[in-house]
Structure formats: C-alpha cells, structure tokens
Design brief:
Alpha-Beta Plaits, 4-stranded antiparallel beta sheet
C-alpha cells in the first residue's frame, strides 16, 4: 500500500513539473516569441504591384491605369486589349498630360490635311501619331508627351531616322488633354499585357492604386 501511495505521489509531481515546463516553453510561449506586431507592415498597392503581376491580381478593389494616351494610341491599346474581353472592368478617363514637352508636326490648315499626313506617316512605320486641335482652327500631329526635353529630343531623332525630319520638340500646350485606360481588379494575364503595351507607348505610365 505504501508503494502505491509513493507511486501516485511521484506521478503527481511529474505531471506538475510537465505542466510548468509546457507553460514556459510550449506552443503558447513559442507563439508569443514569434509574433512581433511592431515588425508587421501592410504594403500599399503600388508596393505590392512592384512584386509582380501575380501580386496585383491577388489584391481587391485595385485599379491599374495605362496613360496618358493620344487618340491614336488609345485606339491601338483598346484593339490590343479586345481579345481579353474585359467588358465592364475596363473604363476610360480624361487626364491632364503632365509631361513638360511634346513632339509634334503643326500648322495643318484643317483636320483632314492632318489625318492625310498621319496616314502617310503610318506607311513609314510611325504608329504613335494622333491629330489634335491647334490654335486658330488649325490642326497638329502629336507623337507623344514627355517628362523631360532630353526624352522628347531622343524621340524626335528616332522619327527623323524613320523619315520624319520635321518633327519638333516644344513645351506642351496647357490645354492638351489625353486619355487613360483603367482596368479594375485585373487578373495576372491582363497585368502582364498592360505592361507590354506600356512599353509600346512613349511617355505613358502604368499606375496601380485604389479604385476611385
């Protein structure tokens, strides 16, 4: 009988010691050591976007915007996106072009004359050309808007090599308004395609942020 009592006492002591040890180094203690709230930081949509198309696709209520685009560029971009059947998730908005310089051909007497010249330019391989309104009822052809004069000059030199030596670099008219394409909650293939298109339009940007 005495042996049984001693065995029960020993078992209780062992259980007590195990309970204390588990409290000190068990799962609860390990979780306390692992979770450090001060080191947790939520990424903004642009920061997640920098991680790649798959991360953008994992966000909710996020819009990807491609622009600014001229009328001709917008038409091309829409045609390129048409196979993706975006439907209502694709929208357009007017944006103030924030570039400081633009490359252009100006002083066409009317829009018809400018559009005729655009057709000739496309035959030369110049795709980024759009007719815009100019002063006194005249028209001009825009080849894109650029943030810096040096970038605009480089594009003008590229056009000269294509056979358009008369393209000019000038400060952007304050009244010039362009468009942007906006895709809401895009899937990974859509983001990848938008990135490919952005590289085709000089002066355009791809922005990621909360939908307005």
């Amino acid at each position: 009988m005495r042996i049984i009592v001693l065995l029960l006492l020993f078992a209780n002591i062992t259980l007590f010691a195990y309970t204390k040890l588990d409290a000190a180094s068990g799962e609860a203690a390990r979780l306390t050591q692992q979770v450090q709230p001060e080191k947790i930081r939520l990424l903004s949509p642009p920061e997640v976007a920098a991680l790649g198309p798959s991360k953008i696709a994992s966000l909710n209520d996020v819009c990807v915007e491609l622009g600014p685009l001229s009328d001709a560029e917008r038409g091309r971009a829409l045609a390129e996106l048409e196979p993706l059947a975006l439907g209502r998730v694709l929208s357009q908005k007017r944006v103030e072009a924030d570039g400081a310089y633009w490359v252009n051909l100006s002083a066409f007497p009317n829009r018809a004359a400018a559009e005729k010249r655009v057709a000739e330019l496309r035959a030369l391989g110049v795709r980024e050309a759009a007719v815009v309104d100019a002063a006194k009822g005249q028209s001009a052809i825009s080849f894109g808007i650029f943030r810096s004069e040096s970038a605009a000059i480089l594009h003008a030199e590229f056009l000269s090599r294509l056979g358009v030596p008369s393209a000019k670099v000038e400060p952007r008219p304050p009244s010039l308004v362009q468009m942007a394409l906006v895709v809401r909650d895009p899937q990974q293939p859509v983001v990848t395609r938008l990135r490919e298109l952005q590289a085709q339009f000089p002066g355009s940007e791809l922005k990621t942020g909360a939908c307005s």
